[in-house]
Amino acid sequence: MGKWRRSERVAVMTKYLLERPNTLVSLNHFAAVFKAAKSSISEDISIMRDVFQKLGLGRIETQAGAGGGLIYHPHVGKQEALAFIDELVHRMADPGRILPGGFLYLTDIIFDARVAQKVGEIFAQRFLELDPQYVVTIETKGIPLALMTARALNRPLVVIRDASRVTEGSAVSLNYVTGSSRQIRAMSLPRRALPMESRVIIIDDFMKAGGTAKGMVDLLSEFKASVLGIGVLVDTGVPEKKLVSGYYSLLRLVEVNEQEKKVVIIPNN
Amino acid sequence: MGKWRRSERVAVMTKYLLERPNTLVSLNHFAAVFKAAKSSISEDISIMRDVFQKLGLGRIETQAGAGGGLIYHPHVGKQEALAFIDELVHRMADPGRILPGGFLYLTDIIFDARVAQKVGEIFAQRFLELDPQYVVTIETKGIPLALMTARALNRPLVVIRDASRVTEGSAVSLNYVTGSSRQIRAMSLPRRALPMESRVIIIDDFMKAGGTAKGMVDLLSEFKASVLGIGVLVDTGVPEKKLVSGYYSLLRLVEVNEQEKKVVIIPNN
After folding, report:
1. How do residues A185-211 score in pLDDT, each as one tens digit?
2. In this prediction, does ipTM exceed 0.90?
3. What is the set of domains in chain A, with CATH numbers?
């Protein structure tokens, strides 16, 4: 294949890193692929690192030493995050989304892969330093956001089910009371899905009173897990007091007025 | 910011494209970002296109003319796909995965974001030419694979639920009989989730007799949708005849022998 140009190496390395967030990649790997000196590869990486930093595209961390290499962390800059959240506000505040009973239809947005990826990167950035081992969610609508958070953190996703399944083996189940509608529901987590005493974060799409989140925390305590943080896409202004504390939310749904066809949703700071 | 080096531009453009699969990106956009002549940007793009092609990293298509630009299509080369599927076979054939009743625990693999992304890219590649407008799945375990397929195709994901929800408005529901265990179940799709007469593909994790897939096809016919293709990660050798035909499957589960602690799973060609 002959000698590689720097721009060719940079294109290939950028793709390789982006597909492996939060993963240590050795310099030797690239040196072997390109049959290049480690010093050339190092210089390529400085270029990538600097331009990513300058434009707020992500953080490329280099680790020195024999086991050295580089790690890419997705990074959503402050301006970019604000613009992204504003765009979500704009989409979500569409009165056409109001459903009978004063509910707001958000499913299409939550299942939009590009939205989910960005939300996941924002959550990952927030919780990276806590060094979670697993990302936990509950079916169904939390899954896209949690999957993309798990992708950005390079950690396994664990999905709590609403009933135990024969295809998942023995499970720990819990009945819980939803915080807002006071209904009794069940949630279940297969024993083999999560080792005891794991460090986890919880990701979900929506929090009203926090009954589901509290149920998840309770269920996780049966696994002696440490819940390091909770991230939700949208919470509600009412009730003000939730059943869990210290969670992180990107958006707040203040009001859905069915009569006046008005939705008030704001960024959460 | 001064003049950009080619390798800097290539790093930034590679990231931008990878985050927007199957999306037309205009050359003018990059020319403006880098304050560079379109001819320089064109040359950057040729370098990226050629090296991606040479290494089987994806297809960068350029479109000439006023509305011109470029489109990135993820591409999993034949060798890479075979190696990836072999790795899945290896992971799935672990006898430790056998559950009581002869079921095989695959949840952790399906919820592995990196696996889901690669499977999604393989499905996207397979179905791209059919030009689907929507990717459809059914909760729960199909979601990661379908989301990543939708990401690679840049199409919305539509998730059929197992019951209708107040947060999703009026829905079309259907009772169906699972093909293998002959149980009656329900599935439901909100009216607003899918416009009438859409062109769709169906993605799911597993197919035994195909009862669920047939149910999805039937439900989609209520929306007058054209089902262009069906992709599943794993199908089973038995029953040989499925309730739907012409689906595409990556792996075949031939046997789970609880007594002998043996799993036979093979790539599907």
Report:
1. 999 999 999 999 999 999 999 999 999
2. yes
3. 6-73 (1.10.10.10), 78-267 (3.40.50.2020)
